[in-house]
Design brief:
The protein is built from 20 helices and 42 strands. By secondary structure, it is an alpha+beta fold. The strands form eleven sheets. The protein has a seven-stranded mixed sheet. Strand 16 and strand 17 form a beta hairpin. Helix 1 crosses helix 4 and helix 7 runs antiparallel to helix 8. It starts with a strand and ends with a strand.
Length: 791
Amino acid sequence: MQLPYSWIKELVDISWPAPELAGRLTLAGAETETEPVLEKGFDNICVGRIEQIENIEGTDHLKKALVDIGREKLQVVCGAPNARGGQKVVVAKIGAELQGGIKIKKSKIRGVESSGMICAEDELGLSDDHSGIMVLDEDAPIGAPIDDVLKVNDYILNLDLTPNRADLLSAIGVARDTACLAGLKMKKPEIDLIEVSEKASDYIKIRIDNPEACQRYTARIIKGVKIGLSPWWIRRKLLLCGIRPISNVVDITNLVMMEYGQPLHAFDYRKFSRGEIVVRRAFEGEMFTTLDGREHKLTPDVLMITDGRQGVGTAGVMGGLDSEVSEDTVDILLESAYFDPVTIRKSRMLLGLNTESSYRFERGVDPNIVPIAANRAACLMQKFAGGSVLSGLVDCYPEPINPAEIELRPERVRALLGVDIPTERIIKILRDLEYEVEDRGKLHVKVPTFAVDVKREVDLIEEIIRIEGFESIPFIDRNNGPLFTPGHPDDVFRSEIRRILTAQGFDEIYSSGLGHSRQLSKLGAGDKQLKILNPIAEDLDVLQNTLIYSLLKSTAHNIAHRNVDLALFEIGKAFNPGNPPAEQEIIGIIMTGRSVDKWFGRGREYSFYELKGALETLAGGCRCGEIAFVGCDQKPFIKGLAFKVNIGSVTIGRAGQIDPEIAREFDIKQPVFAAEIDFDGLLGSRQDTAVFKPLPRYPAAPRDIAIVVDESVRAGDILEEIKKAGGKLLESVEIFDLYRGKQIGSGKKSLAFAMIFRSAEGSLENAEVVDLQRKIAEHLKRCFKAEVREG
């Protein structure tokens, strides 16, 4: 949202320059930047009056105008369709330089001499509008420098607001925070409304059929308006807010919206054939044409404003084409209402529209500012559109929304912030922010209804510290404190996981947690998915139930950018349906391409064994016990390279090679290896303390054994049996070779194992080792019908 700095100065008498104000608002929680309105000034540009104007022969749009600029009269060629005699206009004299580097020189156009230019708004840098020349107020003094009249030598405050700060979507909202920060009082606009004796209630009735979607609806009737140009001060404020002026009535509704944060809408009263407003849900398939000329097919998700028979506007989003204010409008029905934020969000998304009104209604407006905004707009229409305001505001408010009440403990404020803020200062801050406060030992606070995000004591504490200043929280020098402050066990464990994986060359990724239902269904993480009611895109319509999805998406993105050698991990959530839905924290790992050796270039190609080694290193480094891989058959892995990951008898994850067909769904054509480990499962197997062994005092006795077994026998099962047979003297055993070939026959495979024997009590005799090796060989023959290969 953008506002002119001068508007805030109107409301609060601050001495801070614009950049300082932006900095103070940023520190108070509203990120703000400034920029000057104009890159250059308005030298040689002044106010002129068109004395006469006539067509130029041979052209259907160019005209010759005689313009009085005070000391002289200039002949200027002008092509604007809205140029008329008697208008006060902006005249750029010879030597002036306009926006975009346009320099004004004496010239001839169609044989007619032109000694200047009558300017449009875009040529002055005020807007993008080039539909016609800029027309000034009648009281603009002829010949006056345009700087003195337009008063746009100003700064724009650009506020990047978080969704919870709906209270700052207005000049008054920003001024309220500014006044509180500066210790000053805010000056709100005066509303001196004069009503005629006729009653508005005789002209309009209101019925709300869906009070859960429209909690308040008010209407005012203004008769006898004359549609025309707004005064410059109104147009100036709108232009500096980035809003294009249209006409006095429409401009006033936009001005009050930017002033109070309350969207308004002006209808042509003649279009209400029955003198009635009915707020209801749209019918299924109901057709409606909005102000922008687009026809929409509606559903009951859209809330409609109707005249009792047909729609005149979509509530909170945009009015209807058939009821808009036009040049011949005489009587105005002014709407000011409060709509449910979720309802407006659904309506806006279905209509494919995003307006200033919907932006505010979606975030929550103040239901109790509704009549004030209507009265302010009616007052301005009375002054600047010549209207007569009928007596009374027609107000349908079935269930009034009252301020929330919160108990605030000053000692809790001080304890939570670590700042000794006196109770008197706490009360002053809250009252300056328009909270009602009673001191009863504990503070009883009434929260104004514009503060839509303040619901708990801690929210009030946040309000206090953002005004008091986050910089007032004392700095703790950790060098003078304890050397180590333990964090939450889960956070400490996450840090260890990150350290171990990054040490192995992995890069961490972060994802949104959103996914594409069609692609996710192919990954075998369960058919049931958590649908998103209002997806931000068609391919982000569910919450992901496996981290393999986000890892594959990231892999595909990198490969598309020629980064084909990847080792990635993510610690995130997988979401599964239930009542309530379940969130499971997962460690996801993916590898593809080749390892990168910083000394010798590209390393070897990744295989399942690199993934297996990474998981074993992770489990060992986290003191989580020995990992076992148990073959299984499940998506998204290929048969033969799909495994459950176990620690003891507990399955904590899965690992394998991604099926090439599934990989191609993600535009990946190279082998990919992935794993998912349950965070809680891994943490649950973690030993509280590290266990260390003394370094061996006696030498090892290495031996190898090679056996031939049936193809169906799993290497992991053989390893387990070797460990059993080897007993305490078998320190370690690893597989180091696999052979298939004619020498051992079909359906067979040869596996070789490296064994290390060692005793903690003394050096082993050769005979002892030979005897152990023999026992292991005999045990394998009994278990697997293994044939021991000699040599």
